[in-house]
């Protein structure tokens, strides 16, 4: 067993597999268009753009799902041998996905159709669609599996969907251009990352109570935050800010920033390892870095593919 990092390289149409201890790339998986599977390719002079975007680890850690925003598809990577095992269509311009509580369905945000599509996990076919706000991006599911929430960039809002009926039940206004959303461990709060993309203004994190869906706090962060991740054991939220080149650490007990880690690179994806090492993607440099969570010092960096977007950490992977 060893700890593994996976990185989606958007402009490289690949996923890098990295050993987090040696910080060496084990393998680079080059993705295939779902159109090839279904025989829809008709571009003899041009390679199709796939655009691997977000990554989601299945609960058994045996496979990772890669959401491909340009190919309108999802690729499945087998973690036993780092091979592609499947690809299937996932709606128009998919950005993010979550697994339903019982695993029967996969929920995917579709930016071009202002919807969340629901995919049958067995048939890999779209079973239903839910209309949400404009340009949905981030997606999360409540800890009890009863609700799915989408961050709707173009509507400055989030959509609340009931999984029992697979229907939208509520729209909640947030800050400008929300990109990401995650729940608290107990499900009592939602954290929404408002990027303020296109505005000459720093981003915010909205704290929403799931009791009444009121915004109870707005926390200022850096410029153009794109992703964040939570370390629940320490009740800390880590926010990556692309334009201000820094990481904000937010205390989830007090809902306030307790540290800012200044970097010199434009960062995008972010995840945290078990030893409190922060891993980020340096989108302009085509690299990833391991960062000390206390000092902000870069421990090491590694070249990966072009335009690395998302990064996930898998502890004790069976590889």
How does this structure look, described?
- There is one protein chain.
- The protein is mostly beta strands and 319 residues long.
- Helices cover 1% and strands 56% of the residues.
- It contains one helix and 28 strands.
- The strands form seven sheets. A four-stranded antiparallel beta sheet has the order 3-2-1-28, with no helix packed on it.
- A hairpin with a 5-residue loop joins strand 16 (178-183) and strand 17.
Strand arrangement, major sheet: 3-2-1-28
Query: Major β-sheet, in short?
Result: 4 strands, antiparallel
- Strand composition percent: over 45%
* Radius of gyration (Å): 18 Å
Instruction: Estimate percent helicity.
Output: under 10%
Structural class: mainly beta
What string gives the helices and strands in order?
EEEHEEEEEEEEEEEEEEEEEEEEEEEEE
Q: Stretches where pLDDT falls below 50 for ≥5 residues?
A: none
Question: In total, how many beta strands?
Answer: 28
Average pLDDT works out at: 94
Q: Note the total helix count.
A: 1
CA-CA gap between termini: 6 Å
What sort of overall outline do the alpha carbons produce when their principal axes are compared? globular
């Amino acid at each position: 067993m060893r700890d593994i990092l996976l990185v989606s390289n958007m402009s490289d149409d690949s996923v890098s597999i990295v050993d987090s201890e040696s910080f060496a790339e084990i393998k680079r998986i080059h993705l295939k268009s779902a159109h090839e599977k279904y025989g829809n390719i008709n571009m003899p002079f041009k390679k199709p753009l796939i655009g691997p975007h977000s990554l989601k680890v299945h609960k058994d850690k045996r496979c990772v799902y890669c959401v491909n925003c340009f190919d309108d598809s999802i690729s499945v990577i087998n973690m036993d041998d780092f091979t592609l095992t499947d690809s299937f269509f996932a709606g128009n311009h998919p950005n993010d996905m979550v697994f339903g509580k019982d695993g029967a369905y996969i929920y995917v945000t579709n930016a071009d159709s202002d919807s969340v599509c629901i995919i049958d996990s067995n048939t890999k076919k779209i079973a239903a669609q839910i209309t949400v706000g404009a340009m949905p991006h981030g997606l999360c599911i409540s800890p009890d599996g009863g609700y799915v929430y989408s961050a709707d960039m173009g509507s400055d809002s989030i959509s609340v969907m009931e999984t029992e009926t697979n229907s939208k039940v509520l729209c909640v206004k947030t800050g400008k251009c929300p990109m990401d959303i995650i729940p608290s461990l107990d499900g009592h709060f939602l954290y929404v990352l408002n990027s303020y993309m296109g505005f000459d203004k720093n981003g915010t994190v909205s704290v929403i109570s799931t009791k009444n869906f009121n915004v109870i706090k707005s926390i200022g962060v850096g410029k153009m935050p794109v992703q964040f991740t939570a370390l629940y054991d320490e009740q800390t939220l880590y926010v990556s800010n692309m334009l201000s080149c820094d990481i904000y650490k937010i205390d989830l007990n007090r809902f306030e920033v307790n540290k800012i880690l200044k970097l010199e690179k434009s960062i995008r994806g972010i995840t945290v390892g078990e030893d409190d090492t922060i891993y980020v993607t340096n989108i302009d440099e085509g690299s990833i870095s391991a960062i000390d969570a206390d000092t902000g010092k870069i421990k090491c960096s590694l070249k990966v593919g072009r335009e690395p977007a998302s990064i996930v950490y898998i502890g004790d992977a069976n590889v």
